[in-house]
């Protein structure tokens, strides 16, 4: 009966509210159509100004470029409305990859200076072609099972490796394996094994993750050889740079690397190799801004291990203070442990080493993983990796906005790892509309055979953002990627200058129609 | 260069903000782990109180029932986390329909008194079995083409109908058609033609809509015969009532009906038939609350036609003031016309006839259709049909909350009409979190072979709401369906009393474990 009483009270109260508000809103019907349309336009204007970047002022050349960009965008969207099966952001990237290369919008974005990539994992950066080229290196062995049908591991060694990763697998020289199976077959096979293809159907994100982790494991012996590690990073910087990326913040497990004789280096050496390759790359490419490192070991561990992680982070930061600058934990959130299990060791991290936590990369609303968002923010994270679930937490969303915590949105990754299919339903649209800072990143472009950043920008522009989002939107994404980076003080100023130089050049190219194919 | 200056200014300003806010948030790292966990729990508590219905007080029996409900819910979710391919809200309803019938949560919800259905179309209410039973009625003719392989239309007539809906189709008596093709074959064929099955794959929502409209067209001659129209409605009320629904607000095109001799009745007669069937049903079923009508003609017309619609609405409301109470426009929003084309005639609607507009049933962000949301709200709509896109418009979302405009969320419909697949990504989760009023409806349950309302409640409870949403959530969905209905004053009070009576009984049944299968 208490409930009954409540219902009555609520009902009465509700009626009162409805009565008063209804009288306000209904009175709009007394407007003349002209007055209504004026009000309507005012609302549209306010909504329009809410689109990210709309308050940016464009110069004359940018305005001209904008017209051309919006003309092609409009065409691509009109086609999609007529026949949504032709609209690539409504479909799985694995089905549309070839199609997208023909898109004028994609080709414009490809050449656009997009600033930096702030969310990417260090062994999932390079193109499949580059990975395959690595398998031609000398002294490479492959361990296979099922009569050589299934590759299990790689290893560089002068002699046949002694340790078997699995009981049933056998080592043979890579060159022999290639001869025996036929070069074309092997290339085709590796193309598949080094990526998430062809799984475009919705299965479940656990299955997708199992496959995903399998690629990391397979690549381990190929990439963790010291000289290859160095070359892979240099090549990644090159590929990113060619895709209009001038800055890269990479997350790394920082594995110890091995030498050709089997000797193991230390984690410190892993970082040192990165640092020296970076210097070499910057010397060769003066337009490139910089690269920095976030130490991001696996989350599926005991709290005591995280305590050790924190110590390692402190030591590395002491030796590489401008390069190794942040900390995160990685691995599928659902199967790892929630951040709150690690609060005690994490609170020991000195304040000058920033957190950049993965959080809320899930669609389980109200799960401990979903709640990682709360812990990440309360622990003072500078950015949030993915934050796919953030929009379900209005209070956390307000905090992110207030505390200027940028959300690292990785559209293609979310699709491939089965969080959603249609980019038009991606929750980042709501972050944009609510003015939560957003940067667009690519996570693991190697595994989905995507460009280092262009595909993610393409989907953000065409699929996630409102139709009217224009050059201002693209420009503010680029600016955000520098603003929310770990670049500090003078570094950031230099970053903006280097980006602006390429930006101005690109605007000229667009206006001169040099970018459309 | 102006842009460059802007970048510098923004950068400096941004640095200042980041510096001040960062010092607030980072200081959390100085907390002891115990203090952190206290803060963390406080945040969790606030988030928990944000779940719809959490402020409801349950009586002792309800608390007991809640424990049992949450135990089975937890089990179903745990299974899903272990193996997401087993989690029905992550998949398409057409693949899981049989599975769901076995779900203990579904069976609890099935018997739960769920209040009213506020969003449903009058020719898509009844079960497929009932539709098939109608095809056994006397004097029914079927028009088929492709050697009788494809049904085009139905018609009740003493003699062979003269008008052909398509050049190439031929009329024959239904009984002959059934004999010729074999009863089982015909039943199987109608089961498919009367529903959206088997299209569970993501195609595009245009294709889904084309198929969907095709069912309405096929059913036209079967249902628009005056006696069948009456029986169909009576049967719908019966099926809804058996599914725990005590109130039905139906949207209707109000087609003129035909008699066996081909004579046509008027729209006024269509409403009169409804009203008299309703009285008959209420006399037979004293627990049933009521049913009301929203006149909802097609939106793909000229503004002058809408002017006529408004006049018709006014006339009907004059004759049936407690039954025909509202107005809407229907048909695929993308292919129809936006509300703003009809502002002039719509503003002529007298204030006592409420608008209940479909709006934002789209994932095209920033399209004119998406913007129907703005017009619907500015025109003073009492509720919004679907509002799938509302979360992309924070200002409109705030207005909906402030003006107490309920969103009629139809989960299964949104999935079948291809707006999204995974219920865990349904935007209604965000409406719930932001305290925008929500009611759950079923739209066209006939076409997806779903229960009148139980499946939609099931997905709302298990897929859309946060994991911790419990009996309080379900109870407030039921209460909302009465609160936001077109029931007025004393009608509403009586409605609550009738619902509460069945609710108390159901709670007892749950506690006594009479509901679990």
TrEMBL record, chains A, B:
Annotated catalysed reactions: adenosine + H2O + H(+) = inosine + NH4(+)
Domain Adenosine deaminase residues, every copy: 198-493
InterPro entries associated with the record: A_deaminase_dom, A_deaminase_N, ADGF, Ado/ade_deaminase, Metal_Hydrolase
Origin: domain of life: Eukaryota
Any Gene Ontology CC annotation: extracellular space
Gene Ontology MF term list: adenosine deaminase activity; metal ion binding
GO biological process: adenosine catabolic process; inosine biosynthetic process
Compartments it resides in: Secreted
Coiled coil ranges: none
Key word Transport present: no
Record keywords, A-Z: Hydrolase, Metal-binding, Secreted, Signal
Cofactor: Zn(2+)
Residue ranges annotated for the Adenosine/AMP deaminase N-terminal domain, each copy included: 30-109
Main location: secreted
Enzyme Commission no: 3.5.4.4
NCBIfam families for this protein: adm_rel
Family, per entry: Belongs to the metallo-dependent hydrolases superfamily. Adenosine and AMP deaminases family. ADGF subfamily.
Protein name as annotated: Adenosine deaminase
Provenance organism: Drosophila rhopaloa
High-level lineage: Eukaryota, Metazoa, Ecdysozoa, Arthropoda, Hexapoda
Gene: LOC108046713
